[in-house]
Amino acid sequence: MDPAFFPHAHRRGKMGGGKRHTLMIRTKGGAVLHVTTLGIDLAKPVFQLHGVDERGHAVLSRRVRRHKLLEVVTSLPPCVIGMEACASAHHWGRAFEQCGHTVKLMNPKYVKPYVKTNKNDCRDAEAICEAVSRPTMRFVAIKTVDQADLQAVHRSRSLLIKTRTAFINQIRGLLGEYGLVIARSPEQVRPALVALLNDEQTGLTPFARETFAELYGQLVELEQRIVRVNQRLDRIFKAHPVCRKLAVVPGIGPLTATALLAAVSRPQVFQNGRHLAAWLGLVPRQCSSGGHSRLGRLSKRGHRYLRTLLIHGARAVVQRAAHKTDARGRWIWDLKRRKGTNVAAVAVANKNARVIWALLAHDDVYRQPA
Length: 370
Known about the structure:
The protein is an alpha+beta fold. The chain has helices at about 65-75, 90-100, 110, 120-130, 145-175, 185-200, 205-240, 240-245, 255-265, 275-280, 305-320, 325-340, 340-360, and strands spanning about 10, 25, 30-35, 35-40, 45-50, 60-65, 80-85, 100-105, 140, 285, 295-300.
């Protein structure tokens, strides 16, 4: 390892044999300083490191290439490592924890207030090192490999659905140039397009029919891939007991249950159910001052994909609330009459988020209201 990575560093022993080497940093007076807190500004090829000792003095500030990062961090004594929760953060967090370090991930917007003057990699790493040492800082739980696998399945499904929507919009837009209009629903686009291709009276030229036939084939292939991804999620749902326990809650299905399993790794990170609902963006935005509490619209912070699934599931519950006679059903129906369907759906999603936290945090089962 290049000594230039650590100014005034003195190493004992040789780098080899797979042994761990502690780098000690000495001041001009000869005092030995250890890196107790390390901030890492993540990137793709080059990473910026900023370390401080127990007194908060900066003792390390260097750039490290990607293939050298794990070696440099392993050579340090056990310390607290702070990083922003961004791309590859969970991978590096798992790798650094195996080296004996304590890793803490933070939301990037919580780190931004600690950036001094101009923004660059050095200032970002220094801000991360400062933010991770704050006692009131909120941290993000590191995802396991299984959660990363499940999250990849959900994100691939989301990408396929967006691509299918783009295909449908493209097909409808092109057909509009010929004066042909079809429905928007994915279930109705395919039969409508087949009927137009088989009808000789539509005015489509042979060249246009060939183009729309190719688009139709690509649309069919996309839907087949979406079906395979859904089947994979169903197998995971049936095999995991936590997913089946969450699916008992009204408005939670296999898709939402598996997404919750991938996103909420440790419910103990949230103090209570309201904190989980706030993390999902299901609470009102607050703008209070001078003792006057002002609540606005939905904050829409946090996990957008999971919030969307919860609200869509809550809409199904609200639609069936008119036929319910229990306390929960009467509350939903009364709220729908007073505030409307959208407000009632968000309220049900908020309540479901709090129920989910209670089930996960206390290892309890859902009990239907009397």
